[in-house]
Amino acid sequence: MNTFEISPFRLEGDVWLILDQTRLPGTEVYLRPETKEDIWHAINTLQVRGAPAIGIAAAYGLWLSVKDFTGSMEEFAKTLQAAKDYLVTARPTAVNLAWALERMWNTWRKSQPCDIITSKDLLFAEAKKIYEEDVAACKAMGEYGLTLLKPGMGILTHCNAGALATSKYGTCLAPIHLGQERGYNFHVFSDETRPLLQGARLTCWELQKSGVDVTLICDNMAASAMKQGKIDAVVVGCDRMAANGDGANKIGTFGVAVLAKEYGIPFYMYVPTSTIDLSTSTGADIHIEERNGEEIHKLWYAEDMAPAGIKTWNPAFDVTDAKYITAVITEKGIVRPPYTENLPKVFK
Ligand code: MRU
């Protein structure tokens, strides 16, 4: 498959189909969301996941919430605001969700449309723009990211920050896809990413489809892979980066970053500007989602893997302290420490 055909969305006019990622890698089935509740459920259950992708889905969900609206402009505003407040509760950590919803809301308010039809058109156009801008941002991150990598490198990644997590191309997997097209022959090691196996199910699916040389490892094998010299660089995505450069990403990322530092391996975090939250000072202020313990003691399609009633702790993300991040790759360029000083510059 052409790498660049992989996407969690299939846009058919004003019907956006969503690839159900809980069914991958075995089954490729598209959902056809019709209401904001469908979108909320798809985001909450990880049918669509990854920071940019949930922002895009939420933007579309906001439009769905008013698509069939009839009534006064005053009621329209109330309906829209209520849908925005509802959709933002689907997941707490990735800032792209709130970012996309706020952007939709502000665009509508600032343009002050005088009728319902114009309002609906404007919201749909904005959702499409968010999608298209993400495609461009991922492409740009791919180009910037590739300047940090050399042909033949061994590259470790954690979770899935690929095409499936965005509109297309991915954030940290964009340079891998691009390198594949340009003959870089990377050797990618994909952490399986317990408990929901985004690395095994999604990254391996996506990279294998694109013909990339990918090896699946269990999360607890990353240290050995580094010690044995198999890894030259680590690339990961991000769900929310605080003003000081602390970056929340899938649980387990932090451990990989600490290991990379120990072995002198560069650790690159791919962070589109829609994922940078300058209003959050440090990683300590990022709300880390805690999910149902069943994700740990049951596999999705299998038997219990621990005694019934076992106590669990299941944080879905962790924060990598800025000091472990060699560079932050955005669509505007590569940001180096000190992040407190340099991150705001990408918005200028
Ligand atoms: O729980 P998930 O699968 O939504 O977690 C996804 C990640 O942690 C990604 O690395 C992150 O959202 C960046 S996606 C470009």
TrEMBL record:
It is an enzyme of class 5 (isomerase). This is Methylthioribose-1-phosphate isomerase. Keywords: Amino-acid biosynthesis, Isomerase, Methionine biosynthesis. Belongs to the EIF-2B alpha/beta/delta subunits family. MtnA subfamily. The record marks C159 as: Transition state stabilizer. Pathway: Amino-acid biosynthesis; L-methionine biosynthesis via salvage pathway; L-methionine from S-methyl-5-thio-alpha-D-ribose 1-phosphate: step 1/6. Catalyzes the interconversion of methylthioribose-1-phosphate (MTR-1-P) into methylthioribulose-1-phosphate (MTRu-1-P). HAMAP family: Salvage_MtnA.
